[in-house]
Amino acid sequence: MNFKFTNNMENNSMMLEVSISPRKTLKEERKRIKFKHILELIKQNYTPPKTYTMGECVSNTHVIVDNDDKNALEGKWIFSLVPKKVVTKTKTAPAKKTKKTTTAKV
User: How far apart are CA 42 and CA 53, in angstroms?
Assistant: First the structure.
């Protein structure tokens, strides 16, 4: 199985392309890659850029890659990348302490 992650910062998306080699004989194991396998693959092998977090899948989640079907040897999934919100901290001036003055008694 070959996979490739491609980030597109202009569209805030990440595309995952998966391809497998075809099954040549019936003795070979049949491999089917479903969406749940794709989520595991992303969890193990992909980290989004530092200024983004991983979003939802925006493409068809029902795509299945199957090495027994010559038309289903490749699959593409597109996920959204959500920009992180930059939190700016504002510093407040500390409260000023007032000194007590004592008046001398005469």
Answer: 13
Which tens digit of pLDDT belongs to each residue from 26-40? 899 999 999 999 999
Instruction: Please give the structure tokens belonging to residue 69.
Output: 């079907």
pTM for the structure as a whole = 0.73
What count of Cα atoms within 13 Å lies in the side-chain half-sphere of residue 74?
Answer: 4
**Is residue 10 classed exposed, middle or buried when 0-12, 13-18 and 19+ CB atoms within 10 A define those classes?**
exposed
Domain boundaries, the chain: 2-83
